[in-house]
Amino acid sequence: MPRVRKRVSDRGVPLHILERASNLIKDEGRSVRAVAREFAICHTTLYRFHKKRGRLQAEGHKLPSVGYWSSRRMFTDEQEKTVRQYLQKAADLYFGLCPKEVRRFAYQLATHYGCKFPEQWRETSKAGADWFSGFMKRNPSLSIRRPQATSLPRASSFNQVNVGKFFDNLSKVLEKHKFSPQNIWNVDETGVTTVQTPDRIVARRGEKQVGALTSAERGTLVTMVCAGNAIGNTIPPMFIFPRVHFKSHFICIGTANRTGWMQEADFIVYLKHFQLHTRSSPECKVLLILDNHPSHLSIEGVNFCRKNGIVLLSLPPHCSHKMQPLDRTVYGPLKKAVNSACDSWMKSHPGMTMTIYDIPGIVKESLPVSATPSNVQEGFRCTGIWPFKRDIFKDHEFSPSLVTDRPLLPTSGSPSAVPAASTSPPIASPVATAYASPPAHVPPSAAPAASSWPATASLAPVASTSHPPASPEASSSHPPASPEASKSHPPASPEASTSLPPASPACFSPEAIRPHPKAGPRKMTTKGRKRRSTAILTDTPEKIALEIEKNNILLKKAKKKTWREKSYKKRGKEEQKTEERNA
For bias kind Basic and acidic residues, which ranges apply (predicted)? Predict the structure, then answer.
């Protein structure tokens, strides 16, 4: 029998049609056959329903059930609703379950709560494919999606605190300078390579492998810098080539360095290019929104912007995937257009290899297609920059940061932990309360002993009993396990969790079987690069802080150079003495 059977007849008559027909018989005194002909239903069915309905109403009971009911359901509608909400939360936290994990999770739930299920589930330790297909049809709000790879710094940095600071600075700048939309600009870099990703082609059916030509196995990267404003205008892009010297035959505006990446000197060149096209001045200022890349934070660049009426506003770190207008709506279509243009170039130049000198011509064809006024305007709109909208991002979009939202551990130099130093949003926020607290109907004794997620060095289960809570907030939001549960050894795998004693279906909770992951406490450290935040870089306090930071870096480099020279001299003297002794 096929999984989706096409019926040749209707599945009965809807309840509201039968009720309308029964009301006509009762109120207007019409015959059953006449009303049945009017509604195109069987007169016998209408007679039985009308008779049963009158008897039940006289006895004070509910209306009769109509239609077909599902038989041998593993979970009730309320239980499936709870599972659906759990899967949605897991996906919001960027720890979504694949179809196989959902089937395995359903088997664990059915075993733990004593639900009836086919014997094949026990043999394979997971639910059947038919159950999963039916579950997805019964819950149309769920779908199988291919997730976009998101790094851990991006997931943790995009939180309510960082985003709130950015909109505070943006509001302050807009109120102070009264910028119009044509004076609000965003600048961002992207990479264009000489090896493209080929488009799909029409080929022979059944062929195992279909090929398309590229210039090489790995391409050479050229950095391209673009800028657009809130009304959709753009300025000519600038290229940074991986060469020592910039040559005129590159036929574009750009610079060159050994790496091909943006550096401080290259960004100053672009600022002059930007000022030339925007005609900014102290009397007609413009707002330039950019990320926190180190090349954008040079003192010379800040002084140039202050002199020429360019107000620099930096985005929060690792938030460009959500808050960078060009990143949201322009660079995606640009990469597709570049791939198509590269395919056309390879077909029109058979036997030739694409070089970095051909990239400006490729971008010349693809940039007008992607950087359209509507795309650029949509980038500013969807990020809440213009029109200004502070609450453009919903609560569930900050959910991934809740996994790493934890207090700081005290170190030897600090007397206590300082939760305020964390850049993550406070646990008392509405979204944190929705995801961090367990269901109210789950008793403490039914809480899991440990998470069934894969154990990693950076993640620890929320309800783990082997580690005490790191803060009073955590201990208050998560009830401790019972003494009996703390004595037992926590399971280490999803299969081990199925050996728990069956629980009552009345307290059905997926989080009791597989709690959402939670990172351990953060350790305070001074190693690594300085953690930055959104700031108005052209303001005097920020400029002074940048100068102090740059001076400290130069001082450290000078000390290191002096120490290295002294060590070289000392080593040379020792080698000279050794040679004199040997002589």
Answer: 572-583
